[in-house]
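Hi, here's the filled form for the chain we discussed.

Project: internal
Contact: R.S.
Residues: 186
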Amino acid sequence: MRAFSRLLGHLKLPESLTPALVDWMDADEVPQNEDSAESAYYATRATPYRAANRTLVNLNELLRVKGFDHDVLAVLRPFVTLLPGRTAVNVNTARPEVLAALVERMSLNEAYALAAKRERAYYRNLQDFLQALPTGLAAPADMIAVSSSYFLVQARIRHERLSIGSHALFHRTGSSPPALVWRAEI
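And the returned structure, exactly as it came back:
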């Protein structure tokens, strides 16, 4: 959540959204602070509901969390994704704002410089990336990777006035073929 809070800051969104999201997902009914909310707050809405008390299933679910609205979601959407399990962030494909959020005290300028380096040559391993970090900065090894195991595939077919499409999430482990996680029409 510290990385998420830093991402909000880099995107010029209120970092106070973090405790509200934590309370939306945690199992207890105790608010983190005055910016946060649990089921008692959501029960007072025009259409009452409860905090989910589980991880997010869909990004649009953020619209139910205190402080999040369509404008916040529009800014946040290009920088976050939901996956069925915990996974490290691929430093070879992550946006600079995400890199800056992962590495405490990294500026956006430093993150953009790291991203520019990978345009010439991808980071082959974590050591390559760690050596490229500005002096005095360290990345949490459990939160970074140089490859991805999840892939989003989008397809759209248009013929005259007909247009159909779908997107699907695949998960690859080892050398086995990718497995379909979910598929949806768009």
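Let me know if anything looks off before we file it.
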